Amino acid sequence: MTKTDRAARTGAESVLLGLGGAGVDYLFANAGTDFPPVIEALAALDTDLIPEAVTAPHETAAVGMAHGYFLVTGRPQAVMVHVNVGLANAAMGVINAASDNVPMLVMSGRTPITERGRKGARVTPIQYGQEMYDQASIVRDVVKYTYEMRYPEQGADLVRRALAISRTAPEGPVYLSLPREPLAADVPEAWPDDATPVPTPTRGAPDPDAVKRAARWLTESGRPLILCQRGDIAGHLSKLLSRLAARTGAAICEPFPVRNVMASDEPALAGYAAAEPIRDADLILVIDSDVPWIEASQRPGDEVRVVHLGPDPLFARMPVRGYRADLALASDACLGVEALLAALGPGGTRAPWTPPAETRRAKARGSAEAGATTPMTAEWMSHCVSEIMDDGAVAFTELGLLPGHMDLAGPNRLFFNPHSGGLGWAMTAALGAQLADRNRLVIACMGDGSYMFANPVACHQIAEALELPILTIIKNNAMWNAVRRSVVKGYPGGAAAKANEMPLTSLAPVPDFAAVARASRAHAERIEDGKDLPAALARAIEIIRTERRQVLLDLHVALSDDH
User: Fold this and answer.
1) What SS3 class is residue 94?
2) Same domain flag for 305 and 373
3) H or E stretch covering 305
4) DSSP per residue over 183-212, as a string?
5) Sign of the C-alpha dihedral computed for residues 184, 189, 191 and 193 taken in this order
C-alpha cells in the first residue's frame, strides 16, 4: 500500500493527494462555484504532496496545455473545469486528446445535488440552471473511462484508477465528475490513510507466429514501404525504423503526420506525400497510423500485401475505417518492430528503392528559397523557422508549417494538430510544452483563423503570468484557406470558385494580432516581405533568450491551393 505523508480530511484533499501520489505535476484549472472545497484543500495541503495548480482563463487552454506537456514529457497531467459549462468548453480539447491518444485526467465539478442539509448544498440560482441528467455525456463518446465520485474517501482511489486506465494502450483521456457534496464532506475518521496502487499494465507484445509471417513477407518484398504518423515520446521508434529500413530496403513515408517520426536526413525517408510510394510498393507496413492513405484516391492495389501494426491496429474507436489488412499485429509499436528485426536476423543492408532523399531535400530547399517574396510562401516560412530550431527546439503547427521544407534534427521536433481538427490547439499545446522546460525554444505556428480559435487573449495572459516565452507565428492570409481549398477541389469551375469573394471564407478585415499580443507585454511585429523574415526571427530569438519574454510574429503569407 502506498501511504501519503498526510491523511486526507475531505474529499477534495483525497483527490489532490491522489493526483500527487500518482505523479501528476500540474492541475490546469478554470475555477467556478464548485471549486471552494478544492481551493481550500490547495491552500491547506503541503505543496510537495499535490500537483501545482495553474490558473487557465479558458478551458481550451487548460486542456491544450495538458496535451502539450505530455507530448514533451510522456507524463499525463490533470485538468479541472467548472461543471457542465466548463466541460462543454473543454470538450473540443478532449476530442483532440482522444484523437491523438494523449492520456490525461479531465475532471469537472458537478453542481450540488442536494438543496439543503449537507455541506456543499446549493446556495445560488446558477446551481439549478447548471444541473444535468448526465453531465458525463458531454465527453463520454471520446474518453476511455467516466465515473462520478460518490463519497469523500473515494478520491485518491478513483484518481489513480482513472490515470492507470488513461495510460493503458491505446492511451487517451479519462473523465471524473466531482459533485460539491463529496468534495466538501469529511473523510471518516477511521478511514485508512492510504490509497490502493494501480500500476499501468505492461506494453503489449506481438504474436510470434504473426511476426515470422510479416518478416517473411518483408524478405520477399522488392519494394517495401513503411507508413508512420507518430512514434513514442522518447523517440525509440525512429531508431528502430531506421534499422528496419536499412535491413530490408524499405522506404519510409509519413503521410498526414501528427508527430514527426524520422529525422529529415534519414536516407530512407521518402517524404510526407504517400500517393506515389503507395502506387509503386509491393508491401506496405502501417505503423500505428489511423489514416495511412485516402481510400478514394490512394488505395493500394489488391496484389499489394498490407500489414498493420500497433496497440489497436483496427482503431476500434472509429465507427467507419475500411483499410484492408492482410495481417493485423496487435502490439506496442516499438516492441513490434524489435520483434520484426529479431525475426529477420542478421543480414546485409539494402538501399531504399525510392529516389535518394537528398534529391528531394535539395528540390524542397530550392522551392522554399524562391518564396522569399511579398507575400511570402508557406514553403519559405517553414524553411526559415527550421533554420532557427536548435537540437532541443520543438514546434507545434496548426495549418502552418510544412515538414517537407524543414530540416528536423530528430523525432518529435514537429507536432501537428490532431486529425480531429479542433482548432486553437497549437498555441495552447506550446504553452504546456514550454511549462515543461522553460529554457527550450518552443514555437507555435498557425493560421490566422486557428489563432483566433485559441482564445489568444487568454493564451497571452498565461504566457505572461507563468513567464513562458513561446514564439507565436501567425500564417496570415486573411482567409479560411482550408475551407476555400475544399470548395475549389469539390466544385472546380463552380460558382463559388469563380466568385470575387467566396462565401463564408474571408476573415477580412483582419484584426491587429500584434496589438492583441502587446496587451500582455509581448514583443510583436507584422512582417510583409519574406526577405525580412530571417532578421525578424533572429530578433525574436534574442528577445526570448535575453528578456525571457513571449514574441508574436504576424506574417503576410500567400494563398496556396496545396496547403
Assistant:
1) helix
2) no
3) strand 305-310
4) HHSBPPTTS-SEE---PPPPPPPPPHHHHH
5) positive
Q: How big is the CA angle at 198 (ends 194 and 200), to the nearest 5 degrees?
A: 150
Q: Is there a domain that residue 351 lies in?
A: no
Residues 70 and 216 in one domain: no
CB 230 within 8 A of CB 347: no
pLDDT digits (tens, 9 = 90+) for 109-142: 999 999 999 998 999 999 999 999 999 999 999 9
| Count of structural domains, the chain | 3
Q: Average pLDDT of 375-386?
A: 98
Does residue 179 fall inside a structural domain? yes
Are both 312 and 367 inside the same structural domain? no
- The domain boundary, picked from 286, 310, 344, lies at 344
DSSP 125: T
The answer to whether residues 338 and 362 belong to one domain is: no
* pLDDT tens-place string over residues 34-73: 899 999 999 999 999 999 999 999 999 999 999 999 999 9
Rg (CA), the chain: 25
148 and 216 fall within a common domain: no
Answer whether residue 200 is part of any domain.
Answer: no
Helix and strand numbers, DSSP H then E, in the chain: 21, 19
Question: How far apart are the C-alpha atoms of 146 and 137, rounded to whole Å?
Answer: 9
Which among 55, 67, 53, 44 is positioned nearest to 19, based on CA atoms?
53
**Cβ(247)–Cβ(241) below 8 Å:** no
Same domain, 30 and 57: yes
- Whether the CB-CB separation of 203 and 237 falls below 8 Å is answered with no
Residue 394 domain boundaries:
357-556
* Three-class SS state of 322: coil
Q: Indicate the burial class of 133 (C-beta count within 10 angstroms; 0-12, 13-18, 19 or more).
A: exposed
Same domain, 171 and 224: no
Residue 203, domain member (yes or no): no
